[in-house]
Amino acid sequence: MANPVQTKVVIIGSGPAGYTAAIYAARAMLEPILIQGMQPGGQLTITTEVENYPGFAEPIQGPWLMEQMEKQALHVGAKIVTDLVTDLDVSRRPFRLTCDSGEVYLADTVILATGAQARWLGLPSEETFKGFGVSACATCDGFFYRGKEVVVVGGGNSAVEEALFLTNFATQVTVVHRRDHFRAERILQDRLFKHPKIKVIWNHAVDEIGGTANPNKVTHLKIRDVNSGAVTELPADGVFIAIGHAPATELVKGKVKLKPSGYVEVAPNSTATSVPGLFAAGDVADETYRQAVTAAGMGCMAALEVERFLAAQSSERVAAE
Questions:
Q1: Is 99 an annotated catalytic residue?
Q2: 178 vs 122: CA distance, rounded Å
């Protein structure tokens, strides 16, 4: 096996947070190494049209945006590796990262930008229409459903908030929930029940998402009564799955402080974690906004904090000598 690769900073993850961190770290002459992970580009690679990322007058394609971020990071000097980090040892510095390829990295600092994944229903038809009528982000995609009828699946805070937000665009918002009550906060429920554009279908689960092909387009859902088993068809132009997100924290569970929700806890107005030298940026640490632009902002913060951390470490070594 080759000798470990030694570096000042390794960035784990390749969404907006990871690529932005790489851009800033490279410009600071830190020679960052970014390890892309299983889904280079992150969640934006399954988003067809992006209309809320600043700097573009017309809608852009999510995969194209991530491709441009990758090229920009390479242009300013970041090294990008197609590999998967399988183990991260933060018990001592330099941190030790072991990859699926067998490559080992020793890093003075690490930026964790592994993101979070929306929880999906797991239906084959759901996979077919992702980005073509099936979404997990009303803030991202609600604008495209002006004057249309949409369905929100779920019963927690996320589902109720998504439904209320979608009333700004859709003519009808139907919430489908497999139970006979919501888990959402009471104040949110009250707002939902009072809204004239929203109706709720209780005790139903989604069996299938139907639509047309070439181009793919959602037209209806097949929903099943969880008590009787009866299946009915529900017309819809779009479906928003709102059953929660799962932050990708497998590498640091038991090694760094997490919030009760499972997201990495960072210091206020910072990306610093409970482990000195380990920083977290983007959706792995942000349970509130989960937007591409806020993830990019956190990536910038993380790189700047890494630069300051390394400078402080260097000053301490000089003082000790």
A1: no
A2: 15
Cβ contacts of 46 within 8 Å, gap of 6 or more: 62, 130, 131
Which one from 83, 108, 140, 237 is the annotated catalytic residue?
A: 140
Beta-carbon contacts of residue 115 (< 8 Å; ≥ 6 apart): 13, 15, 17, 42, 43, 247, 248, 282, 283, 284, 295
Q: Which residues contact 299 (CB under 8 A, 6 or more apart)?
A: 16, 17, 18, 19, 20, 21, 22, 24, 111, 113, 281, 282
What are the structure tokens assigned to 102, written together? 């067998």
Closest CA to 11 of 23, 27, 29: 23
Task: For residue 137, indicate whether it is catalytic.
Answer: yes
Q: What is the pLDDT of residues 230-253, one digit of tens each?
A: 999 999 999 999 998 889 999 999
Given a contact cutoff of 8 angstroms between Cβ atoms, the answer to whether 266 and 71 are in contact is no
User: Taking the model in full, what pTM does it have?
Assistant: 0.77
pLDDT (tens digit per residue) in 120-138: 999 999 999 998 999 988 8
